[in-house]
Amino acid sequence: MSVVTRFAPSPTGFLHIGGARTALFNWLYARGRGGKMLLRIEDTDRERSTEPAIAAIIDGLTWLGLDWDGDTVFQFARAARHREVAEQLLAAGRAYRCYASQEELAAMREEARREGRTKLYDGRWRDRAASEAPEGVAPVIRLRAPLTGETVVNDEVQGRVVWQNENLDDLVLLRSDGTPTYMLAVVVDDHDMGVTHVIRGDDHLTNAARQTQIYQALDWAVPSMAHIPLIHGADGAKLSKRHGALGVDAYRALGYLPIALRNYLVRLGWSHGDQEIFSTEEMVKAFDLAQIGRGASRFDFAKLESLNGHYIRQTGDVELTKILEDSLPFLQGGPEMAAKLTPERRAQLIAAMPGLKERAKTLVDLLTSAHFLFADRPIPLDEKAASLLTPDARDVLVAATAALSATPDWQTAPLEAAVRAVAETRGIKLGAVAQPLRAALTGRATSPGIFDVLTVLGREESLGRLQDASAR
């Protein structure tokens, strides 16, 4: 049997980080078995489904590197097929028309709550003749669910899960206006798309029982199901915005690499021994549903940052520069930097990258550290840099500028030798010379190694900035 999975988000907002993990698990399971992952946009909620949300989902998946097979399926466009199946169940006697009014339904719900019953509908139209139908009332179509016995889902993560049929309602398949319900649409779409494995959050576990009953009423094979625990915050509470429950687009804007986010998400709830860092190929080869735990995983920003820093350091300088350049439209301050990224500055950025990426945890860190490359003369000093340029420091700066001007070979070793000579002549530590140089050259109190800065900026720009600072 060829494996077919699907990712089926509702386009009512951004691609949530939990949704991204669900998509990743579906993608890995299918790719690791030579199967297909399909994409279905469940846009039946017409009031909340928006084109920008659809675009955000597709863009988020694309940025994460999660491709899908075939055309994207839009659930709303299949409404006629869903109605056809509801009518098919009606004709077979496995569904029925229900004429209960909203007032009657409200009274049933209230009575069930009083008696502590989970079953809210009392089945009053299950066996009544159509001739008894009140005039002017448009009926819904309900599933004629089994009243006794059990509905069982042998879940690949949760194990054997059992529901007593006496506690399950005759769920609505078709509303009174003829629109299909989510429960029916999902079953019909999964069947028609040939889905063999449904991998989704465990908040859908109760839905699995109801959907299984629809499959059985249609005599269709029930796909294998795997309900994965939700992601919680570091405090163990359900993940929310205060924990960082952001859209994938926000993680992009925060400067995370797609490969790092994929690697982090795959380890949220899935384990493979003690291994933490996976190439994409390793993930595809190793991923299986059996290693997904039943307990909720906890989102840890510090761990994500650490992993992101690892991938930044492991990425080649030219490739990382290209990644940073492509990300500039999404990063804070990035568009301004993009406007200044001339071929000369791009070359400088590549040359500076070894020092820039050493301490960076995100692309935002890289951009911040690379600020000195994009600064226009006379470069502005931040508060800490300005505090470093005391009268004594300015005196040292003048001496260092003279020594550097006299250095014919503008390379790291000769430049370092010249600065060290200034420190030794004055009987001060190297840092007492390097810090004023750093402030004058970068406008910041922290930067990559000062000799790397001098080399990357070049003789003319470096001396010009030093002279500007001396003349302030």
UniProtKB/TrEMBL annotation:
<feature type="domain" description="Aminoacyl-tRNA synthetase class I anticodon-binding">
    <location>
        <begin position="337"/>
        <end position="469"/>
    </location>
</feature>
<keyword id="KW-0648">Protein biosynthesis</keyword>
<keyword id="KW-0547">Nucleotide-binding</keyword>
<dbReference type="InterPro" id="IPR001412">
    <property type="entry name" value="aa-tRNA-synth_I_CS"/>
</dbReference>
<dbReference type="InterPro" id="IPR049940">
    <property type="entry name" value="GluQ/Sye"/>
</dbReference>
<dbReference type="InterPro" id="IPR020751">
    <property type="entry name" value="aa-tRNA-synth_I_codon-bd_sub2"/>
</dbReference>
<keyword id="KW-0436">Ligase</keyword>
<dbReference type="GO" id="GO:0004818">
    <property type="term" value="F:glutamate-tRNA ligase activity"/>
</dbReference>
<dbReference type="InterPro" id="IPR014729">
    <property type="entry name" value="Rossmann-like_a/b/a_fold"/>
</dbReference>
<dbReference type="Pfam" id="PF19269">
    <property type="entry name" value="Anticodon_2"/>
</dbReference>
<dbReference type="InterPro" id="IPR000924">
    <property type="entry name" value="Glu/Gln-tRNA-synth"/>
</dbReference>
<dbReference type="InterPro" id="IPR033910">
    <property type="entry name" value="GluRS_core"/>
</dbReference>
<comment type="subunit">
    <text>Monomer.</text>
</comment>
<feature type="binding site">
    <location>
        <position position="241"/>
    </location>
    <ligand>
        <name>ATP</name>
    </ligand>
</feature>
<keyword id="KW-0030">Aminoacyl-tRNA synthetase</keyword>
<dbReference type="GO" id="GO:0000049">
    <property type="term" value="F:tRNA binding"/>
</dbReference>
<keyword id="KW-0067">ATP-binding</keyword>
<comment type="similarity">
    <text>Belongs to the class-I aminoacyl-tRNA synthetase family. Glutamate--tRNA ligase type 1 subfamily.</text>
</comment>
<dbReference type="GO" id="GO:0005829">
    <property type="term" value="C:cytosol"/>
</dbReference>
<dbReference type="GO" id="GO:0006424">
    <property type="term" value="P:glutamyl-tRNA aminoacylation"/>
</dbReference>
<dbReference type="Pfam" id="PF00749">
    <property type="entry name" value="tRNA-synt_1c"/>
</dbReference>
<dbReference type="GO" id="GO:0008270">
    <property type="term" value="F:zinc ion binding"/>
</dbReference>
<dbReference type="InterPro" id="IPR004527">
    <property type="entry name" value="Glu-tRNA-ligase_bac/mito"/>
</dbReference>
<keyword id="KW-0963">Cytoplasm</keyword>
<feature type="short sequence motif" description="'KMSKS' region">
    <location>
        <begin position="238"/>
        <end position="242"/>
    </location>
</feature>
<dbReference type="InterPro" id="IPR020058">
    <property type="entry name" value="Glu/Gln-tRNA-synth_Ib_cat-dom"/>
</dbReference>
<protein>
    <recommendedName>
        <fullName>Glutamate--tRNA ligase</fullName>
        <ecNumber>6.1.1.17</ecNumber>
    </recommendedName>
</protein>
<dbReference type="GO" id="GO:0005524">
    <property type="term" value="F:ATP binding"/>
</dbReference>
<comment type="function">
    <text>Catalyzes the attachment of glutamate to tRNA(Glu) in a two-step reaction: glutamate is first activated by ATP to form Glu-AMP and then transferred to the acceptor end of tRNA(Glu).</text>
</comment>
<dbReference type="InterPro" id="IPR008925">
    <property type="entry name" value="aa_tRNA-synth_I_cd-bd_sf"/>
</dbReference>
<feature type="short sequence motif" description="'HIGH' region">
    <location>
        <begin position="9"/>
        <end position="19"/>
    </location>
</feature>
<dbReference type="InterPro" id="IPR045462">
    <property type="entry name" value="aa-tRNA-synth_I_cd-bd"/>
</dbReference>
<feature type="domain" description="Glutamyl/glutaminyl-tRNA synthetase class Ib catalytic">
    <location>
        <begin position="3"/>
        <end position="305"/>
    </location>
</feature>
